[in-house]
Records
---
Amino acid sequence: MEHLNEKQRLEEWKKIQTALVNEQIDQFRAEFLEMHPYDQAKIFEEQDEEIRFLIYTYLSPEEMAEVMENVDFELVSTFITEMVPAYAAKVLEDMSTDDAVDILNELDKNKVASFLTIMEKEEAEEIKELLHYEEKTAGSIMTTEFVVIQETMTVKEAMRHLRKEAPEAETIYYLYVIDVDKKLVGVISLRDLIIAEGDFLILDVMSERVVSVPVGEDQEDIARMMRDYDFLALPVVDFQNHLLGIITVDDIMDVMEEEANDDYSKLAGISELEKEGETAFSSAKKRLPWLVILLFLGMFTASIIGRFEETLDKVALLAVFIPLIAGMAGNTGTQALAVAVRNISTGDSGKRSNFSIIKQEAKTGLITGTICGILITLIIAFWYEDIYLGILVGLSIMATLIVATTAGAFVPLIMHRLKIDPAVASGPFITTLNDIISILIYFGLATAFMNFLI
Amino acid sequence: MEHLNEKQRLEEWKKIQTALVNEQIDQFRAEFLEMHPYDQAKIFEEQDEEIRFLIYTYLSPEEMAEVMENVDFELVSTFITEMVPAYAAKVLEDMSTDDAVDILNELDKNKVASFLTIMEKEEAEEIKELLHYEEKTAGSIMTTEFVVIQETMTVKEAMRHLRKEAPEAETIYYLYVIDVDKKLVGVISLRDLIIAEGDFLILDVMSERVVSVPVGEDQEDIARMMRDYDFLALPVVDFQNHLLGIITVDDIMDVMEEEANDDYSKLAGISELEKEGETAFSSAKKRLPWLVILLFLGMFTASIIGRFEETLDKVALLAVFIPLIAGMAGNTGTQALAVAVRNISTGDSGKRSNFSIIKQEAKTGLITGTICGILITLIIAFWYEDIYLGILVGLSIMATLIVATTAGAFVPLIMHRLKIDPAVASGPFITTLNDIISILIYFGLATAFMNFLI
């Protein structure tokens, strides 16, 4: 269970490689199985097809299941499909149900059907049920391998039951208690169970105030709950409070990572964060959609400036400040956007009305706008020795900052109320919107004050 | 332990409020203590000073400690300071050592010294030691309340020891095993312990391959490890492998949230994400530093365009495409930056050389640049019926995208090698840098091809 760094992994792999080339199965197994499954997976991923096929014959499906649970999610369907179907079905069977379901969701339907036919019936049924849940809900990330005890058991009986179930269960540190109707009625932590007297009934030692989540709950809300309440696992129930599965903290850490990456990449205007090892082509493919949209939005901005060509012809100097004003608008909008999106996604908003949030952003914009506006007026007045140009740019910056800050908060909030993911109003979108607003303000003011400028 | 939504919390609070006003201590305690500490904390936070002082007299320090562990970190030092010192010291004493240390780190030194004097000696010593560790390292987030067993104990003895220690320990689901020199030699999960035969020695049932982290390890690396290896806790050791403390998964979830917010706010150019409930003034204060820096950088951009005033005077139409080109440069740079920063912070980079990453980004820029360049050339050629202008803008976009994409990856990578947090090269910085580059390219080309444009 040692954590390996790159160098150690390389050395370890050399030993394993030698064993493979010389077909020393025992040697390979001894070295390989000694490692943490995460390291096994990292080493496995780096192999080419030929060696992977050798490894499939050297490891039992159960051992391979542990490897598959830890390989990069984008690679795992390739591996599963290249295995002999009977072996693949066994591997899927031995994985945690939730992980197996994640993989099957990536495969085509015929493939899934054939795997489910080969699989042991009970496991296949469990998987079939989980396959129905919508992505990113409690149902799709829960596992059905958990320990459940009856409220009428004694502590001693519960411990005995637990010992039997422990090897199969995903976690045993919370035990969920059901009544005769199989409804969730309580929870007891293993900590409390081992402290409790053996003859007591579970009913008397359990906590009745068990927190559960409905099967359709959004995974982001679950992550928030787990973080706030410091749970290691959460039970998932249907609308009649029947226990369906549990969600463990390790799955939630992956969700947190995923959701953070999601917000982050949308702020940057990428459809999906690229992984190390991607080709330039696939990177370009992920980034191009936004760039092309922005190109057209940019053309729109250009056509707006085009309408002020007359103004520009008279005072070419005006062009000099376009990037400054557009840039300030873009940046202040992104700041407001980031605060709004993150507060929505961490649940920090929602306590206040939209109106009060937007009023506050407008005030923030007023403060930053006034300060930046005065600053730029002074700089231009002294530098270009043109007080009127200074006032024009200063006023533009001030008006722009107020509008752009408000827009940065307004757009995601409205989207949130319309049940659209607010992060879709990504950075580049707000930036371009604010480009346009700022240019209209700037050239509008410039045209109005033209007499002072020439 | 029910999870309360806003409405439920309000109702609950009304009951509690009534009890407080009527000075019904028992009623208040019954209602309040029934809730999950997180909800207790949320309700407590919303009270004004007068009622908070009442609550301090109604709850024991131990009960208040649980509340304090869950209140918003930014508020907790206010609360601790307003308590009677003897009560506050007791509260700190009863909190998890790691949480108490976090709070004391926020207070001024005299205050800390006086608390430590009042505190129980043993607890004070533990805290004093933890106060020495640098922020954001293993030492600063670990707790010293863990269960440790001797390798020479039997399973039965270990279980007995565990039952005794369980109420105090932060987690009991991993038991760390030490030898006579108090060095960490193994680990056994509670799961394995309860399955093991009672007469076996711990030595024989423990795993010797225990993963530990050095006390100076960065918290971000620890979070990554915990996520990859699915641990619930990690032991922290000194350079001689003495067990110093443990880090539990609930603390790591907070670290993950913190680090994600950090990367995110830097991409958006805010020094720190603002919380709900902040005033417009404090929001403006957090955003202004970047805006002012950008104002000056923007002035620099303006002065560069100023140098091309002659070119602009001849062809005012050139100004029309400034936002388009600068915008494309900014956006493509932010995309590349986001990928690089996130890959560095999730540890996905580092396996490849800087050179190969930058080469790949340049290639990506070449592909996106060529496609966008051709597109814009065609659009301008048909729209403005000016093929030369089209070629000029197209070439500029192409060159800009190649350079800006490369710069977006180059800057954070260089910073990372220089041991500077790559996220410091935040979105606005890269955007402005790329503004300048793009304008130099655009006007440089325009000046060179001037003969074709007029």
Note: The mean pLDDT of chain A is 84.
---
Amino acid sequence: MPVNQIQNGTSSSSSAAAATNGCKWPENVGIIAMDIYFPSSYVDQTDLEEFNGVSKGKYTIGLGQLKMGFTDDREDISSICLTVTESLLKKYQISPVDIGFLMIGTETIIDKSKSIKTVLMDLFKDSGNTDIEGIHATNACYGGTASLFHAIDWIESSSWDGRYALVVAADIAVYASGAARPTGGCGAVAMLIGPNAAIVLDRKVRSTYMANVYDFYKPDLSSEYPYVDGPLSNQCYLQALDQCFNLYFDKANRNRDELLNHNNHSEQQSMIELSHFDGIIFHAPYCKLVQKSVARMHLLNNLRLQAHDPSRFDTKLEKYRNVKLEESYNDREMEKLLLTLSSENFNKRTDPSLMLAREIGNMYTASLYACVISFILSDSVENLTDKRLLLFSYGSGLAASMFSARVTKDKAILSRLMKGLTDVQPRLQQRQRVPPTKFEETLNLREKTHNIAPYEPTGDVSSLMAGTYYITDINQKYHRTYSKVQ
Amino acid sequence: MPVNQIQNGTSSSSSAAAATNGCKWPENVGIIAMDIYFPSSYVDQTDLEEFNGVSKGKYTIGLGQLKMGFTDDREDISSICLTVTESLLKKYQISPVDIGFLMIGTETIIDKSKSIKTVLMDLFKDSGNTDIEGIHATNACYGGTASLFHAIDWIESSSWDGRYALVVAADIAVYASGAARPTGGCGAVAMLIGPNAAIVLDRKVRSTYMANVYDFYKPDLSSEYPYVDGPLSNQCYLQALDQCFNLYFDKANRNRDELLNHNNHSEQQSMIELSHFDGIIFHAPYCKLVQKSVARMHLLNNLRLQAHDPSRFDTKLEKYRNVKLEESYNDREMEKLLLTLSSENFNKRTDPSLMLAREIGNMYTASLYACVISFILSDSVENLTDKRLLLFSYGSGLAASMFSARVTKDKAILSRLMKGLTDVQPRLQQRQRVPPTKFEETLNLREKTHNIAPYEPTGDVSSLMAGTYYITDINQKYHRTYSKVQ
């Protein structure tokens, strides 16, 4: 059923004309439904520590990662997008004809011209729905957020015809053998976007920071692996956090009447700051960086508070009252102090969002949205309603945004979203733990066979879960054929 | 100066809050300013016919192409985007701080992760404006249209803060040695998007057709060349035209009160059909295909007319009254008849849009917008005001849309757009005609050096026009450095 019969493309001309008057943005636009796909195999990070001969805890404590999902040669970016999109449509009983916009965010490029979106059109073929805007957007881990913003904008624009938008954020994150390899992962998140959403995006507060940097990029087109300057990338992430944080709170305070509870007079008088939010959710390249980001936010928030009222500055931070942000990215002593001071905040507001990141690893564009799913899975409908979420999206290169959302007060709407996610934990448990030798072998196979044609994959289809699309063949013209596990 | 001071991010909180009420879509959103960049060298298609030993007229008449622009190893997708974007900002005296959205459409991928958009952020560095949404969108020649739609949607959304959007459509189109090579080209178009535009996009009529096809794609990531199934691609183009045409006119007639002249009562009573438009503008892979598309539209329009009133069917087409569209793509006899019957329409409404396509060749994502520029350059302000344009965008793989626009009635607004384009013809004339031997040599150099690092380009910088960005160096980490011709 379309969201809004009045504006739907199939409606009569008179009612369509009527819809041009009055308020033009539908209410409560945001995420109505979500689904996630992750590989059926994982390597345990403790196994990997032992296998790689590194100190115990290097990956599990140092990076904050527990397990890492990976795929063999049976899956590619198109197959995981097919799997998660079809799964979402089925779970939430959305008819393919009711989708009017579909956009993919990914940096797992297997064709320089043909978008993944065109492959997904196969899911709509039987319904006859070919009128679906959107192609695919790329900039590192940020493409999902760009696609989400475009989807929201479409729904608020004059071109919206009452149908839903779909956003798919998906990536296969693999690194060359070496120090960065344990920070890989793989996942795909699909989101149904429309009015009367479960997670409603706040208006007028999106803040963005973009710059030209070579911190992580993929210039060697024949390889699946990125070029990474790890220390620079960590610094860029925190720098983007600084910029987005300050701009977000500038915008939030300019628009605070819309963000605050209109019935709570005392709330309206105060400035919006970090404690306003119940969940603080990040793009998670590895969980330890997220923890450091929450720590840094403690400093950022205090600097903003003191600009408003010097007495509100945390006295334990006194030494850093006049710190120059741009010079502090490598200040380990400050970082340690901030980690301690922010630990309660981290445990309460952010840690619940990291479950999938710990279990699967970095999913690039899907990472932030997997964190949203984890947060939602961490609590009950009763506790989650009306919760305020702050989100930070980062893509190397670089592109970053901070934005916010409020969980609906409507329990029925939230329950519907959560019902679609009940199989996530069971699916995580069903996965197969694979020894590091097999993991290395698989990645070597991917490396050797990447971008070759013709190619017939050899991976074991029986390990894939029901509903998973997989490659059956890549012919000499690079045409890819897929089947589905029944 | 921002478009709308009231909604601008720097405005006071009270006026920003006030802007949330009432009508939410700004008026007359569309293209305010345009600029085009094309290479300083070209090969003449008659020279190429002789050099390739093909029959005289094969390229010039068979394809409808006169000259083809190309670049050596001094230019890449980032450099041509830098050149055209800076040129537009300077020409129209737009301050970098007044841009709030910038998106690139391209299929010339030189990095699988880092978007061209991030490179363009260097143009905004001095102004301190880092809060610019948008990354880059990819699906063959369609990415510019996708980006344009996202820019328009952003301006109509709640996230718009009164600043302009920029859309850049750019590509370097090169083919492997052989039959397809003469259909290459290179160009970049930048467009400034906002309200009170010179070319105002019509609302609620965008029609889209997307499908999963392998007609033209770039699966060999290590090569700059596409895989092309020429006959299939021609058929897909026409098939997408059929679908978009019918859906466009369905939507246009459902929303005809908004599209028609409210003062002309007789006009409001009739259905909207092809003759409604003064300019019919296409993505032009080669000009002959555009001519065939106008011919096919003659059939499509007659089939729609007869559904409304059988007596309106062109009697010369009687034989095709019940033609099955999907079986007629290779009907040469019908095509010939349609070419004759539509020739006046083509000469009047489409031919003026093909000047740059004939002179430069296929510019992929930039092609449709170069055709818009050609159309604008073909006439005077007096004749162009209030003209209605129908546009068809096609990207293989496939993604296609039909949409429409009206040239402003405001001569000052149109004059401003046209003033920025006065140097296009002189720049075309200034180009250097290069013999086919040199052209082949240059393409071989690009082929040999594509995606290698470190690399120091050898091309002659002195042939580039003032304001052109060029590569000075690609280091071993693939970092690219650019300079500008003063």
Note: The domain at 26-484 of chain A is CATH 3.40.47.10 (Peroxisomal Thiolase; Chain A, domain 1).
